[in-house]
Amino acid sequence: MADPVATTRQGPARVRDYMTANPETLEASQSLLDAVLLLKRKEVRHIPILENGLLAGVLSDRDIARCAPSMLLPLPAQEYNRVFEETLIGKVMTHPPITTIAPEASLAEAVGLLFRDRLGCLPVVVGTKLVGIITVNDMLRALYDILAPIPSQPASRQ
User: Fold this and answer.
1) Is 52 helix (H, G, I), strand (E, B) or coil?
2) Which parts of the chain sit beneath pLDDT 50?
3) What is the Cα–Cα distance from 47 to 63, expressed in whole angstroms?
4) Residue ranges of the domains in the chain?
5) Looking at the domain that runs over 12-147, which CATH code has it been given?
6) Biggest alpha carbon distance in the chain?
7) How far is the CA of 142 from the CAs of 89, 125, 128, in angstroms?
8) Rounded to the nearest 10 degrees, what angle do helices 136-147 and 107-117 cross at?
């Protein structure tokens, strides 16, 4: 049986093989409403947040849910919306990011960080420049690539 280590044609799988390159970002000075709209439009759960072009934090759908007013409170709709319009992302995001990873890091290292720190994503950086994001869903795709049956090759004729 083959060793169940994620590999590519070039060798062991790296973060760069599974990350989302050049992810959508927002600025810490933007509103929570901007974040909610981006999460819905792009169908993602994590947004890297920048300040002056540098990675400053990460905002997740859970961060937004945590600070949203409860629907159980008798709050008028305009008041509920006002919270999202007036709250800045910088007040809600995880700042600074718990950890980051390089695109050349192994998938095993990324899995270790996600598992150890109970994270949903890792920003991928080169120096101080954000180049991507890798999420738990990306790791599931890598696991699928390892475990999915390889289509059988037609027998060669001699």
Assistant:
1) coil
2) 1-4
3) 11
4) 12-147
5) 3.10.580.10
6) 77
7) 31, 20, 26
8) 130
